[in-house]
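WARN retry 2 of 3 for item q-0093 after timeout on previous attempt; input resubmitted unchanged.
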Amino acid sequence: MAKYQTTTARVLTDPKPVDPKPVDPKSTDPKRINPKHVSALGLDLGAKRIGVAGCDRTGLIASGLTTLHCKNCKSFESVIDSLRQLVAERDVDLLVVGLPYTLDGEVGKQAKKIQKQARKLSQALNLPIEFVDERLTSFAAEQMMIENRQSLTKEKALIDRKAAAIILQQWLDERKIAEGDNFAHPS
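OK item q-0093 returned
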């Protein structure tokens, strides 16, 4: 059994909408997202890498998909191109981005930087975003790797992917609770 502490997810809709349009069918309001089809990408944004996770269509299980290596990217467009391909392949409706609050729960310098980066991605991909409290997700991902006897130094990209999956899973779980456990199985 894991010996690490996880945090309760705090799902936050971006307070500054990227494009204030009339009600969009791809709205992040749980009542507007088709309960039979959930397609979101979870993102763990970093300076060197972006961990990317996806979920099954029922919205029950998140899993790591890939890690984009930003350090080697020639431009922001190369990151966008990779994400556009995933968005098209998976018919993505929403980006779920981990926001690194301080341990006191404040939006600090790093969180503001992530918000800015997430808004750029949201605009470029023309998708709404939601932020999830990601405190300790990388730590939880590292603990899972230690339990599986995987190298932390050789597998940094895997840590980012796993952290993105934890972020997305938190959002999925919160959504499921908000919908009374029936969002994926409408009556």
